[in-house]
Amino acid sequence: MTTPSRLPDPYGSGGSGANLADILERVLDKGIVIAGDIRINLLDIELLTIKLRLVVASVERAKEMGIDWWEDDPSLSSGARRRELSEENERLRQRIAALEADTA
Amino acid sequence: MTEVRYVYAVTRPFDGAATPLREDVRGVAGAPARLLAHDGLVAVLSDVPAEDFSDVALRERLEDLDWLAATARGHDAVVSALTAAATPLPLRLVTVCRDDGGVRRMLDSGRDQFTRALERLDGRVEWGVKVYAEGAEGTQERQGAAGARPGKAAVRAAGGGSAQGRRPATGRDYLKQRMRRRDATEGVWAQADAVSRTLHSELSRYAEAEQVHRPQDPRLPGAARGNVLNAAYLVPREKGEAFAEEVRRLTPPGTGIRVELTGPWAPYSFAVTTAVPAAEEGGSE
Prior knowledge:
Chain B: It is found in: Gas vesicle. With 104 residues, chain A is mainly alpha-helical. Helices cover 55% and strands 0% of the residues of chain A.
């Protein structure tokens, strides 16, 4: 499936154009943490729950794909998943060969 | 009705005539934002109803994704309006003080941290760059296959009728179809990976700092499938156009790869420096 790549299309982040995922990851995850004088330290706990709910799945999925470089230098990104896929392909090929032998 | 102070950001005093906080900029809870200057620093805040921002209320509301979304948008609306005239140092969502006195105490106690960060970030903005491997089938396949032992699962799926889409006639056809998809999918992901590496290393030369974020979960509102690279770059404001041009130049034409540029953002991703995380984070939590 080939979709032509789209040219970058910058927008002002304050407009309605900014997507919520981009905003959430910035306001929940970034920014300076200061305890105001209302004890909002609960944030550390509560926001963590939300963040985990929103984020965990993507992290695990990305790791399965061997993409774990946000934790590390991009150049260290693991090729493990790719190796795994090659092995899986090999297993599938053998399986087809076996089935073809059966039906022949 | 009692009100408390919702603080969005801290910044340096800026020219009042150029105030970016027009009447129509609405922040959290639909409230307008105002400035509170104190000893060389300015807090940007809204007066919000106390009962909505008490410990107890927040405990519930932060679990309410609609409320969270509206609050996040309000927070960003004010922060990004500020970006037009100043360099705001964004605070974490829902930083609340009891009254103006509390805000001043907060500015005093965080003065060193604020001052250092504002110096470092002065005149800089953040640009976001995301790379997607496009092709819904491929990405769904990848997600569907997560964790399954391929050989056994494939055979069981074919026999048990749980296979998705066009039903292959035989187990062999199923396996062939699956392998074709897998090869195609792998190609797109590998290419996205390569494009991401090139982009990241080239763009990092333009940027003063960079942060690689986690790929976005497609279940997040507004997020798309197949996010491979999700990075933020700290770039001097006046170099924005050159940066965008560089992203364009590095975007491969006519492939299954999509590159998305967002910004300019306030320097959210760079508010806390990674160089001394222990000191900064430890001190504020």
